[in-house]
């Protein structure tokens, strides 16, 4: 598990250090790169990497019942991506779809055309980050790397 956090931290550091100083989302055209950059920029390395394996929904897979409000933010984010897929606006999975954004005062602003696939994907990430703003103080180390079979 430590290796996974180390690799994730290295990838996130590469994203941030290779990005221009201005805080615009034209860095890449992949949502997961945009999302990673936003998380690092707003919440920092420790929180960003710890949320890669937090609770029942934060990370690669989501199942069961969220164990706290942060985990609920992750579930809503997963469901949001699922809704974008169901609407059929995107040619491929939302994580592979890029978008444009601006960060100002730690708030993400989506700048693509309202209602477009790019805008919808950006809004999923924005809503997640807004949710984290509301609940990040509730972060609980005991909910990192949980046994999903037992707790979810």
Automatic annotation (TrEMBL):
Protein name, please?
Phospholipase A2
Reaction catalysed by this chain? a 1,2-diacyl-sn-glycero-3-phosphocholine + H2O = a 1-acyl-sn-glycero-3-phosphocholine + a fatty acid + H(+)
Provide the leader sequence positions.
1-18
Q: Which GO terms describe its molecular function?
A: calcium ion binding; phospholipase A2 activity
Q: Which cofactor does it need?
A: Ca(2+)
Q: Where is the Phospholipase A2-like central domain?
A: 31-152
The UniProt family comment states: Belongs to the phospholipase A2 family.
- What is the disulfide pattern of this chain? 58-74, 73-131, 80-124, 90-117, 110-122
Its top-level enzyme class, in one word, is hydrolase
Q: Chief location of this protein?
A: secreted
- Coiled-coil-forming residues are none
- One Pfam family here: Phospholip_A2_1
Localization in the cell = Secreted
């Amino acid at each position: 598990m430590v290796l996974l956090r180390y690799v994730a931290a290295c990838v996130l550091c590469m994203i941030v250090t290779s990005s221009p100083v201005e805080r615009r989302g034209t860095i890449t055209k992949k949502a997961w790169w945009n999302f990673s950059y936003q998380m690092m920029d707003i919440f920092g390395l420790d929180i960003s990497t710890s949320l890669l394996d937090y609770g029942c929904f934060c990370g690669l897979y989501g199942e069961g019942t969220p164990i706290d409000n942060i985990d609920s933010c992750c579930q809503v984010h997963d469901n949001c991506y699922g809704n974008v897929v169901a609407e059929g606006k995107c040619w491929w999975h939302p994580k592979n779809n890029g978008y444009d954004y601006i960060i100002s005062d730690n708030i993400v602003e989506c700048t693509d055309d309202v209602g477009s696939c790019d805008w919808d994907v950006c809004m999923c990430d924005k809503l997640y980050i807004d949710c984290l703003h509301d609940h990040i103080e509730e972060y609980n180390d005991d909910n990192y790397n949980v046994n999903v079979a037992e707790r979810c």
